[in-house]
């Protein structure tokens, strides 16, 4: 059970990283097409903060629990 939970947590973090990474790619490739975000830099920073959060979670799990 322990391994399943840890694996699920890591997979969740990886999925969220990919989600936010894809959002950054959209902002970078087509910034004019994102009408609800007038400040593209700020929107990218929010996505990067989310990536950092999940990256840190994954590192903590791998370092201290695996």
How does the helix and strand content classify structurally? mainly alpha
Q: How many strands, which pairing sense, and closed or not: the largest β-sheet?
A: none
Oligomer: single chain
Counted by DSSP, the helix tally is 2
Q: How much is the average pLDDT?
A: 92
Strand-residue fraction?
Answer: under 5%
Q: How many individual β-strands?
A: 0
Element string (H = helix, E = strand):
HH
Q: Radius of gyration, rounded? A: 15 Å
Helix content: over 70%
What spatial form do the alpha-carbon principal axes imply?
Answer: elongated
N→C terminal distance:
13 Å
Number of domains: 1
Which regions have little confidence, pLDDT < 50, spanning 5+ residues? Answer: none
Q: What does this protein structure show overall?
A:
- The protein has one domain.
- The chain is built from two helices and no strands.
- The protein has helices at residues 2-29, 40-64.
- Helix 1 packs antiparallel against helix 2.
- The radius of gyration is 15 Å and the shape is elongated.
- The mean pLDDT is 92.
Q: How are the SSEs placed, and which strands pair?
A:
Elements (H helix, E strand, L loop, with lengths): L1 H28 L10 H25 L2
Helix pairs in contact: 1-2
